[in-house]
Amino acid sequence: MNLFLVKKPCGIIITAIVLLSCSLNISAQKGLTLEESLAVAESNSPTMKKTRLNLIRNQENLNAQNASLKSQFSLSVNPLSFSQDRSFNDLISAWNTTKTTESFGVFTVSQPILLTDARISLMNKFGYVDSYSEYSNTTNTGFSNSLSLNLEQPLFTYNRTRLQLKELELALEDAQLNYAIQLLSLEQQVSIYFYNVYQKQQSLEIDKQAYENMQKSYDIIKNKVDAGLSAREEIFQAELNLASSKSNYENSMVSFENAKDEFKILIGLSLFEDLIVLTNIAVDTVNVDIAFAIDKGLANRMELRQRQINIENAEFNLIQTKALNEFRGQLNLSVGLFGDNRNIANIYDNPTDNESVSLSLTIPLWDWGERKSRIKASEASIEASEISFEEEQNNIILGIRQVCRNLINLRNQIEIARQNVVNAQLTYDLNLEKYRNGDLTGMDLNIFQNQLSEQQIAYTNALISYKLELLNLKIQTLYDFEKSQPVAPVKTL
Q1: Does residue 380 have a pLDDT over 80?
Q2: CA-closest candidate to residue 144, choices 356, 357, 349
Q3: Tens of pLDDT along 105-120?
Q4: What tens digit of pLDDT does each residue of 200-210 get?
């Protein structure tokens, strides 16, 4: 290929620099498949990073709640406490000064009861006290130990511990669903950008082929003009056609580089890392049963489960709302053993049994209709969530039906585009022969070359559109019709 037949020196220099740059970068280019692109994007995409962190946050919140349901051990130590107080004592009708030095520690084992929302705790308090009273002019010192078993049981209300645990479980499930949905959305977005790069890559190859073909036709007409077999003005048209073809080639190169940069930003690659995409867009068209696709979509779509979670959360909110200004009670039981003595070894020589039981009731009287209004508001939220669920179902059905219709149309377009490429190639070959024989002008040959390039690009676009629509169907139904297998995108970290 002789690039220096064009008469514009600046254009020659620019073209040479661009081609030289491309040739130097070939060895450094990184070939990237669609699957590899998705893996890179999942790791590097800012959206996926934030979604993954949200998933981790909800998982850890649930882990913390489950850990809080196990026995909790705590130790509280007060090494030294001193107080001096002078106050009026009504019993003796005199002012009295007291001095107290105290040291104690409390060891507690607490266990929530998920079944009844109760809490049972075992508490042991051991201490030492040195107390002086001015009135009796005596000092009392000694050790004491109090061991007690306590029960706190809410009555006539909902189980707050169980409800909180269920809310966290639903929050984690929703985060997992959201992660999977974002992953599918990322797959669709990466595929669109990936095939856009491939499209530009193919357009560059097609325009390069057209440029080479135009270079050959230029050589033919130049030799004819030099030999006096064609009119001098034919060389002018040939030069114009060659310059136009070169311009298209350079424009395609610029578009290709821009598409690669956008793709690298999307998946998180360095802008200075060169790449080419590797794929086979040849497709085997598949027959899709619309009823089967709709059944799969309604059974698998994660958005429906998210709407159900919204309904459940709204029902939980109704439970909490009904507890506003409610009639409720609290039962507290405690049994224990107390002992004190100057000698620590004899602390339980004369023990005292400590028992207590209390029942408290909260009885609402009048709230001016607050509870009733809030309940109605919560019920309206539940109804709105149910409507959103039905609306999501209809949107899924509508989307699947549209995709199935598009696939049928795109399948027909592929066949038409394939035949158009064959016809355009045959037409170009025939007219190239006429051009060699002098029966066709360079302007006419350029028209046939442009037609061939347009049909080749149209065929590539038809194949890409079909593959993207198949991907859209997979996302709509969570079923891969090419492989005839379900898709399970939910991942746990």
Answers
A1: yes
A2: 349
A3: 999 999 999 999 999 9
A4: 888 898 889 88
Domain ranges of the chain: 3-59+166-312+382-486, 73-113+118-157+327-363
Predicted local confidence at residue 490, as pLDDT: 55
Average pLDDT over residues 403-410: 92
* Contacts with 186 (C-beta within 8 Å, 6 or more apart), sequence order: 38, 41, 42, 45, 47, 48
Class of domain 3-59+166-312+382-486: mainly alpha
pTM for the predicted model, two decimal places: 0.75
